[in-house]
Amino acid sequence: MVYAEDARQQLLSGVSKLARAVRSTLGPRGRNAVLDKGWGSPKVTKDGVTVAEDIELDDPNENLGAQLVKEVASKTNDVAGDGTTTATVLAEAIFREGLRMIAAGADAMALSRGMFRATELVAKEIGKLARPVDASKKTDIQRVATIAGNNDPTIGNVLADAFLKVGKDGVITVEEGRAAETTVEVVEGMQFDRGFLSPHFVTNEDDVACELENAYVLVYEDKISSNKSLIPLLEAVSKANKPLLIIAEDVEGDALATLVVNKLRGILSVCAVKAPGYGDRRKAMLGDIAVVTGAQPIFKDLGIDLESVKLTDLGRAKKIKVTADDTIIIGGAGSKADVEGRAEQI
Q1: By CB neighbour count within 10 A (0-12 exposed, 13-18 middle, 19+ buried), where does 119 fall?
Q2: CB of 271 closer than 8 Å to CB of 246
Q3: Residue 93 C-beta-side C-alpha neighbours within 13 Å
Q4: For residues 332 and 315, what is the distance between their CA atoms, to the nearest angstrom?
Q5: SS3 category, 328
Q6: pLDDT tens digits, residue range 100-113?
Q7: What is the pLDDT of residues 45-74, one digit of tens each?
Q8: In whole angstroms, what is the distance from residue 342 CA to residue 320 CA?
Q9: Which end of the chain is more exposed for a tag (fewer CB within 10 A), N or C?
Q10: What are the DSSP calls for 256-308, one per residue?
Q11: In which region does residue 81 sit, left (phi positive, over 0), alpha (psi from -120 to 50) or beta (all else)?
Q12: CATH superfamily for domain 4-129
């Protein structure tokens, strides 16, 4: 264990080592970093958060400092989607200058309060300088996308086309293709803010996400606690050799344990998420999901037991991606007429 100045200096050393590696990628003239993933070809990147996440220091105390700044980059990426290198550089500068002030006799708590106050003032001034992007103008979107895409105009043009087609609130996913050119394809789908109920459902370790293709979708309003009620459906889905997404008020106890065991043993590719919304809002959103996927929603007032649910009651989707926070359903099997009818009702 280390204390006081020794602890602060070791943390600073870890922060500085990580920031030095990330700093080199900053700006239009930033350098590429080459990462050894331990398998396959080395990865060449100019993305700050990607570089940061690949760094593990041998010294455990220095590594704690590196992890603190790594979290800064990761949160910036989650909230803003860009600016991770700038956030890392600022974090190191704030940490370094903060330690210098403390060494000079400044009160640590007063310094912290001052930083928060300064952050509020700076954020307010930056907000005054900000110019909103006109989502209807391709050139505006293209400029921002090109900068975020490492100043590649091809990427900027493709992203601008995508945003014009789906709108600023639309969902855009990126997949590796086999063609020589990057193309944009618009498919029916939806997104809601609920993530997987267990990290054991993850299939893509790099993105920490569960990805299901040509999957069945169960839309269930009530809680699922007993594995006895769930097993008949799991057996039917397993025989069909298809993945399964379960959307319910909650999946807990023996039921969740059964799903995890089936996933880990490779018996069934499955994922469970909580239903979005609350009360009547939840029921309406489950109805939306059912329409998009072509599922028969199993509501409480219908009196349908989970044991009696058939494959024909399940919805279908070409692709589903579930992260810790969100679920994206792409290419649902619901008819276009039903989707349009539902939209008119809303």
Answers
A1: exposed
A2: yes
A3: 8
A4: 8
A5: strand
A6: 999 899 999 999 99
A7: 888 888 888 889 999 999 999 999 999 988
A8: 21
A9: N
A10: HHHHHHHHHTTS--EEEEEPSSSHHHHHHHHHHHHHHHT---B-GGGT--GGG
A11: left
A12: GroEL-like equatorial domain (1.10.560.10)
Other C-beta atoms lying within 10 Å of the C-beta of residue 28? 8
If one counts every other C-beta atom within 10 angstroms of the C-beta of residue 84, the result is 27
Would you place residue 137 in the very low, low, confident or very high pLDDT band (cuts 50, 70, 90)? confident
Strands 210-219 and 315-322: antiparallel
Confidence (pTM): 0.64
Name the residue among 59, 46, 329 with its Cα closest to residue 214: 329
Provide the 3-class DSSP secondary structure of residue 196.
strand
- Asked whether the beta carbons of 272 and 251 are under 8 A apart, the reply is yes
Cα–Cα nearest to 259, from 250, 249, 272, 243: 272
Residues contacting 286, CB < 8 A, separation 6+: 219, 221, 247, 275, 297, 299
Angle at 144 between CA 141 and CA 35, to 5 degrees: 130
One-character DSSP codes across 202-217: --BTTTTBEEEEEEEE
User: Regarding the domain delimited by 191-345, which CATH topology (the fold level of the hierarchy) does it fall under?
Assistant: GroEL (3.50.7)
CB of 331 within 8 A of CB of 319? yes
User: How far is the C-alpha of 330 from the C-alpha of 191, rounded, in Å?
Assistant: 9
In the chain, where are the structural domains located?
4-129, 138-186, 191-345
The DSSP string of 83-135 is: -HHHHHHHHHHHHHHHHHHHHTT--HHHHHHHHHHHHHHHHHHHHHH-----T
Round to whole Å and give the CA distance between 314 and 118.
53
Question: Read out DSSP for 125-142?
Answer: HHHHH-----TT-HHHHH
